[in-house]
Specification:
The chain has 19 helices and 15 strands. By secondary structure, it is of the alpha+beta class.
Length: 583
């Protein structure tokens, strides 16, 4: 009858409003996200909220209005109801044992999530892959063929090995790199660490080069393995010579540490910029006098070798005057040895080389002189051979032991990309979502006890998220954190249905008996299962054809795990909370 449909709509309205509001309020904090997270998730949250509002209208208005037009038989599923009552009654009767086992399961799942689930970088939208990187740098002017042969040796170590998905190598000038990408299964094995050790051992045998071997991703998240880790120390002071002396002092102290290699005091303040090398030419004046070469002639000969231009003349070509400059072949790529053996013109026409008339040497210096706040800046860099944790402890201890003179400062020089604080924003959204959910439940049901019961159901849903990532060996990324936020709003819907039935069952009594709880749970069990099935069905389009560590795949996986665990908790665990409680 119309009256019956209206009464049914009124009875279910608090539960519908409670479920909808708790889901909608967790989306409100998305409006305050910043950076990349805002651009990606705000449209998603807006569409989700609009769908929720329309679902309230259809649930409490449209369905009761049109429900009488197509009468259908009501399926009661008596056998399932009897089975459910028989399974939930002992859990409610022995509630302390039920709660104790639940706490134990939550502890095990939490341990598994902390120890076994890899964390992907929050800055990577598609989950961080496990990669092993080798950087190889030869001195300027080295033979490119030697560089190519050296990087090929690292390629041969990785190509064809189990668990290797792709091997890339590229280089140019005096540097080259090799990157090994591993499959998801191999990333959780010992293969990446073993290969890192092999490449490190091979790198030690290559002389005259700077080699760095390091890994990124879940396989290296524990900080294990050994490689060459680079550190940079920033020195500042008002005296250029004083900063230079302080840098030399730190260099001597660093070289006394057994595992420290390649200490440099002339690095550029910019990452990736090459340090400058100066050629020092000290003329031997007696030798110049014996050869009859003046200082001017000697300087002109040197200029011809290093700059290329030996002077200009005008030639007439096809009726047009053209300036012609003579340049020495290979002047732009002249090596120090070639400069030493270059011939110097002289009056005697003797084969005099530059090295016969001057001492040619090189000195490492600063590529640029930088000042910050009127203070000179110098960078001291070094490599540490050994495990990452040992390297970090050694570096921290060394930095703590430095006592710079008055007017000077020493600090870590860390390259900072523009920081994306969206990861922190997501956890703030998570906390705000929980608070808003509890306040919404308390406002809709006008009961602090109902809000407390719904809050106690959250750990069950979150355990489902942790458990599904542990079981599938999927890395937990920022996208998964968004799924956790949705779980806060979705997974409590089942508990809200049960709490609403319990409140309706005993509006006048101060306590709820075991029979009351079993009857309320049995009455709402069908709704709880239906809500769960519709939620899981809505996740299928997100999960089909996507990887678990992709944007929508991670959201679907986290939401599915939380929803399933929240349903199991609402049907069998939450009833144990309700016994003997005030309404």
């Amino acid at each position: 009858t119309p009256e019956g449909r209206a009464e049914a709509g009124i009875r279910i309205t608090p539960a519908v409003l409670g479920s909808t509001i708790t889901t909608a309020v967790v989306l409100l904090p998305f409006l305050y996200l910043q950076g990349n997270a805002r651009a990606a998730f705000v449209p998603f949250a807006a569409a989700f909220a609009l769908a929720l509002l329309w679902s309230v209208f259809s649930s409490v208005v449209m369905i009761p209005a049109v429900g009488g037009w197509a009468p259908a038989a009501i399926g009661t599923w008596p056998r399932l109801h009897r089975f459910y009552r028989a399974s939930v009654r002992p859990l409610v009767r022995w509630r302390w044992m039920t709660l104790g086992l639940t706490v134990a399961v939550l502890a095990v799942v939490s341990w598994g999530f902390v120890k076994r689930v890899p964390r992907s970088s929050f800055g990577n939208w598609y989950g961080q892959r496990t990669t092993l990187n080798v950087f190889l740098n030869f001195p300027r002017g080295s033979d490119p063929e030697s560089l190519d042969k050296s990087i090929q040796e690292f390629e041969r170590i990785a190509v064809g090995r189990p668990g290797v998905e792709k091997v890339e190598a590229r280089g140019g000038g005096s540097s080259a790199m090799c990157q090994v990408s591993f499959t998801n299964d191999a990333a959780l094995s010992s293969i990446p660490l073993e290969m890192q050790e092999e490449m490190t051992e091979r790198g030690v045998l290559i002389g005259g080069a700077t080699i760095s071997v390091f890994g990124r991703g879940p396989a290296f998240a524990n900080g294990g393995g050994s490689s060459s880790i680079s550190y940079r120390i920033k020195l500042m002071g008002y005296s250029f010579s004083g900063v230079e002396r302080l840098a030399q002092d730190l260099k001597q102290r660093l070289e006394a540490i057994p595992r420290v290699r390649n200490v440099k005091t002339t690095l550029s303040t910019g990452w990736g910029a090459e340090r400058a090398m100066s050629v020092i030419l000290t003329p031997d004046r007696p030798a110049l006098a014996r050869a009859g070469v003046t200082s001017r002639d000697f300087a002109a000969a040197i200029n011809r070798e290093i700059r290329g231009a030996a002077g200009g003349i005008k030639l007439e070509l096809e009726g047009e005057e053209t300036d012609v400059s003579l340049k020495a072949s290979g002047a732009r790529e002249r090596s120090l040895d070639e400069l030493r053996t270059a011939l110097v013109p002289n009056a005697t026409a003797a084969p005099l080389r530059v090295s016969d008339l001057a001492l040619v040497s090189e000195r490492e210096g600063l590529a640029t002189i930088t000042r910050e706040d009127q203070q000179y800046v110098r960078i001291v860099g070094y490599d540490f051979r050994g495990p990452v944790k040992l390297a970090n402890r050694t570096h921290d201890a060394f930095m703590a032991s430095i006592s710079p003179p008055a007017g000077y400062s020493v600090s870590d020089d860390k390259f900072s990309w523009e920081e994306d604080t969206s990861a922190k924003g997501l956890w703030l959204v998570f906390a705000a979502g929980i608070v808003l959910v509890i306040l919404s439940v308390a406002a809709v049901f006008d009961s602090a006890w109902a809000a407390a019961m719904v809050f106690l159901s959250l750990p069950l849903a979150l355990a489902g998220v942790a458990g599904i990532f542990w079981a599938t060996k999927t890395s937990f990324s920022r996208e998964a954190a968004v799924g956790v936020i949705l779980v806060v709003g979705l997974a409590v819907n089942q508990s809200i249905l049960l709490v609403d039935a319990a409140l309706e069952k005993r509006r006048k009594d101060d306590r709820l008996s075991v029979d009351d709880i079993v009857a309320a749970a049995s009455d709402r069990s069908g709704m709880i299962i239906l809500v769960t099935l519709t939620t899981l069905a809505s996740l299928i389009p997100l999960a089909v054809g996507t990887d678990a560590d992709s944007l929508f795949g991670a959201i679907a996986l986290a939401t599915a795990g939380g929803t399933i665990a929240g349903t199991i908790g609402a049907l069998w665990i939450v009833p144990a909370y309700l016994v003997g409680r005030r309404r």
